[in-house]
Design a protein that fits this description.
By secondary structure, the chain is of the alpha/beta class. The chain has two domains: 269 residues, Glycogen Phosphorylase B (Rossmann fold), CATH 3.40.50.2000; 192 residues, Glycogen Phosphorylase B (Rossmann fold). The protein has 16 helices and 17 strands. Strand 15, helix 12 and strand 16 form a beta-alpha-beta unit. Helix 3 packs across helix 5 and helix 9 runs parallel beside helix 14. The longest helix has 19 residues.
């Protein structure tokens, strides 16, 4: 199959969060299985150009419709971590992708609506006919709509669309002007199509993607249930249930070529479940780097964006709970809002002289790898979590996850005390209620096991390391979906 993976991110060249890792990991898996894959993404000025090999212009002067005129656009190609990529570069006074940031602008909807239109225009003008166009998140929600409303009648007849929802908290809600921009009719604002179910007279790009795609997935089975039947659907519940026969959850995988202590080039000592001694050397190296005292204590870590979804209040509480219970605490993350960053900067100043605590406000890829390798436990107290990759990474590195039982966390972390499974299948500690009592219960049990029953903690650590969350199984699930929608 020829598969076009259309996304706003692809690691490691353009990465804000887990979306980038998923796009790259799934693309690599499909390539390994013999499929022709191209990832399509905007050509941001802030990309990691050092991670793009063979970058060259392959199409000049692609004139893309935009309101009542056209914008000149070039298309470049290159390879990112072994994945062929196409980069869309428009030229306009708005400088859509030349702003030094990936997201966070008032006209984000217009920027990504143009990107979706330019992608289809490029396929149409060059005669490319992907078997599958796999779109990701709200940024590409308008692409299936434009494909079937505009480009299929022009001859772009082969592509079928798989659409993946990574986080329905962000849906691309906008006004009817976006339809005008994209050359689409006002009739699409009706409730059965793109009309938002919560805000009258608003257009919902994610809803449009669900309605028009041939199949819609989300990133874990538990999250699929949650967004259909609870408030975590943020108003999309009626649409998801109306299209339930073409909707399902596929658990994200992880690329063990990048995230495995056996081959990780960012950590000083490699190790595996067969010989875990390197992990204890990495723990010492982490302490040396962060100026923590070398004492017989567990290290509890957080590697995360710092925003309300990730449970920042519970993270703050956990710092002092861990320190009060004979543990060390390490945090690496940056806030999505100035007030959150300020809060953690103040905590950092308050705890600066504590030899058992280090808070790193920002993101450092190399340090993230060392934290996974050196930590004994990884805390993920999310309010909601569509899939989550940190708990999967943590398990591979022998860091026991302590997580709230929601979304993909509930699909991957099985409680050491309460999971209905043999001990060999249990991998961490979970809590149900999004409050400090729940957090203390789970983290307290984890710390208690480390201190009082080290042999059982070691077995729990190894249980996680044995788990296989590579893209192999999930990749096959997506191939099955692709095959299904090609014939239905």
């Amino acid at each position: 199959m020829y598969i076009a993976m259309v996304s706003s991110e692809c690691a490691p060249a353009a990465k804000v969060g887990g979306l980038a890792d998923v796009v790259h990991g799934l693309a690599r898996e499909l390539i390994l299985r013999g499929h022709a894959v191209e990832a399509v993404l905007p050509m941001y000025d802030c990309m990691r150009y050092d991670q793009i090999a063979g970058l060259e212009k392959i199409y000049a002067d692609l004139w893309v419709p935009y309101y009542d005129h056209h914008l000149r656009t070039d298309v470049f190609s290159g390879r990112v971590g072994g994945v062929p990529c196409l980069f869309i570069k428009p030229y306009s006074k708005d400088n859509f992708f030349d702003r030094g940031l990936y997201y966070g602008h008032a006209d984000d909807v217009a920027r990504f609506a143009f990107f979706s239109r330019a992608t289809l225009e490029f396929f149409y003008k060059t005669g490319r006919q992907p078997d599958i166009i796999h779109c990701h998140d709200w940024q590409t929600g308008l692409l299936p709509v434009m494909l079937y409303e505009i480009y299929q009648p022009l001859g772009l007849e082969r592509p079928r669309v798989c659409y993946t929802l990574h986080n329905v908290h962000h849906q691309g809600i906008t006004g009817h002007h976006t339809l005008n921009q994209a050359g689409l009719g006002a009739h699409l604002m009706e409730p059965a199509k793109l009309g938002d179910d919560v805000y009258p007279d608003a257009v919902n790009l994610m809803k449009g993607g669900i309605v028009y795609a041939n199949f819609t997935t989300t990133v874990s089975p538990r999250y699929a249930e949650e967004i259909q039947h609870t408030e975590l659907g943020h108003g999309l519940q009626p649409t998801l249930n109306a299209h339930a026969t073409k909707f399902g959850g596929v658990l994200n995988g992880i690329d063990y070529g990048s995230w495995s202590p056996e081959v990780d080039r960012h950590i000083p000592h490699n190790y595996s479940g067969a010989d875990i001694s390197g992990k204890f050397a990495d723990k010492k190296a982490l302490r040396e780097r962060l100026l923590l005292q070398d004492r017989f204590k567990p290290i509890v870590a957080v590697v995360s964006r710092l925003d309300p979804q990730k449970g920042v209040n519970l993270i703050s509480h956990a710092i002092f709970f861990a320190l009060a219970n004979n543990a060390q605490f390490v945090l690496l993350g940056s806030g999505s809002e100035p007030a959150i960053n300020q809060h953690f900067q103040e905590l950092k100043a308050q705890l600066n002289d504590n030899p058992d605590c280090h808070l790193e406000i920002g993101y450092d890829e190399e340090l993230a790898h060392l934290i996974y390798a050196g930590a004994d436990m990884l805390l993920i107290p999310s309010a909601f979590e569509p899939c989550g990759l940190t708990q999967i990474i943590a398990m591979k590195y022998g860091a026991v996850p302590v997580a709230r039982a929601t979304g993909g966390l509930a699909d991957t972390v099985f409680d050491a005390n309460h999971a209905p499974a043999p001990y060999a299948e249990r991998t961490g500690y979970t809590f149900e209620h999004f409050d400090t009592a729940g957090l203390e219960s789970a983290l307290g049990r984890a710390l208690g096991l480390w201190h009082k029953y080290p042999r059982y903690f070691h077995e729990l650590r190894l249980n996680g390391m044995r788990k296989d969350y590579s893209w192999g199984r999930s990749g096959q699930d997506y191939i099955n979906i692709y095959d299904h929608i090609r014939v239905c």
